TrEMBL record:
One of its GO terms (molecular function) is monooxygenase activity. The lineage of its organism: Bacteria, Bacillati, Bacillota, Bacilli, Bacillales. The keyword Transmembrane helix does not apply. Keywords: Monooxygenase, Oxidoreductase. It holds the Pfam family ABM. This is Heme-degrading monooxygenase HmoA. It comes from Alkalibacillus flavidus. The keyword Oxidoreductase applies. Residues 2-90 form the ABM domain. PANTHER family: SIGNAL TRANSDUCTION PROTEIN TRAP.
Amino acid sequence: MYIVDSTVVVPEGKEDELISIYQNRSRKVDEQPGFIKFELLQNDKKPQELTVHTIWETKQDYLNWARSEQFKQIHELEKNYPDQELAQIVPRVYKYKVVAN
């Protein structure tokens, strides 16, 4: 398995707005070969820190998604969020190979 976490820190008071965006996401990733799971995580001690957590069967499955036209379309939409503070946030991305479970 392969896990990709994308973490952002949103301006105070914008947490619910970003959560709502992800609750209403397009779900295009759900249809991708090798995709297993999506979760949006909110840090219990730092509620402004949100992490998109995805699980993939293989690293190649994730790379195929990240290079796809659908991925590009979704991330282009992010640049056009009505709230420009959210649109300009750059995530920290962490990638993990599962080595034991």
